[in-house]
Design a protein that fits this description.
Elements (H helix, E strand, L loop, with lengths): L1 H30 L3 H29 L4 H21 L3 H6 L10 H12 L5 H30 L6 H9 L1 H18 L1
Helix pairs in contact: 1-5, 1-6, 1-7, 3-5, 3-7, 3-8
C-alpha cells in the first residue's frame, strides 16, 4: 500500500508541474494574453488555491468529518473537473472560471501524505519524508518534457490537450482512494 500511496502523491503533483510548464504558451496562443495578463491570471489562481486549502480542510475534514480517503476522492475529482474546464475553455472568461472548480482540491497533497504517515511506523517518518522530497524533486524532470511534447503536438488543433492529460492523471489517485475507503469500511463491518 505504501508504494501505491507514494505513486499517488507523485501523480497528484505531476499536473501542477506539467501545467505550469506550458500554461503561458497555451493562454498566449488561445487568448492572446501577454505576460502581464498571464501574471494576473496566475495571481488569481494562487488566491483560489489558497482559499481551496481552507475550504477543503475546513469543510470536508472539520465540519463534515469525512475520512482521509473520501477527502482524497473529492479533491482528485475537483482537480479533474478544473482541468477539464480549463482544457475545454473557449474564452478567457472560462479560463477564469475553471480554477473555481478546484475549490475542494486544496487538501489533495496533504491527504496523500497523511495516509502515508498513518501506515508507517514513527521511526520511519524521517526516511519517508526525505524519500517523498526526492520524488517531488524528480517529478518535474519527468513530467515537464511529457507536457511539453503533448502541448507541442496538439497546440494548433487542441491547445488544451495537456489539461485533459492532467484530468486523466487523477484517475489513478481517485481509484486508489476508493480502494482505501472500501478497505477501511470492510474492516469496520
Amino acid at each position: 500500500m505504501l508504494l501505491l500511496l507514494l505513486m499517488c502523491h507523485v501523480v497528484t503533483l505531476a499536473p501542477m508541474s506539467g501545467d505550469s510548464s506550458v500554461e503561458f504558451l497555451a493562454v498566449r496562443y488561445r487568448y492572446g494574453w501577454d505576460a502581464a495578463s498571464y501574471s494576473s491570471f496566475t495571481m488569481y489562481k494562487t488566491v483560489v488555491g489558497f482559499i481551496a486549502n481552507f475550504l477543503s480542510i475546513g469543510i470536508l475534514s472539520e465540519f463534515l468529518q469525512l475520512s482521509d480517503a473520501v477527502i482524497g476522492i473529492i479533491s482528485c475529482l475537483s482537480l479533474a473537473a478544473s482541468s477539464i474546464l480549463a482544457g475545454l475553455a473557449t474564452s478567457a472568461t472560462w479560463a477564469y472560471i475553471a480554477p473555481i472548480a478546484s475549490l475542494l482540491s486544496g487538501s489533495v497533497m496533504a491527504v496523500s501524505r497523511t495516509l502515508i504517515f498513518k501506515i508507517i511506523s514513527e521511526n520511519e517518518t524521517g526516511k519517508i519524508n526525505s524519500f517523498i522530497g526526492s520524488l517531488e524533486s524528480l517529478t518535474p524532470l519527468i513530467v515537464v518534457p511529457v507536457y511539453t511534447h503533448v502541448y507541442s503536438m496538439f497546440f494548433e488543433t487542441f491547445a488544451g490537450c495537456y489539461n485533459l492529460l492532467s484530468a486523466g492523471m487523477m484517475i489513478i489517485p481517485t481509484a486508489v482512494n476508493i480502494w482505501i475507503y472500501q478497505d477501511m469500511n470492510s474492516k469496520t463491518d
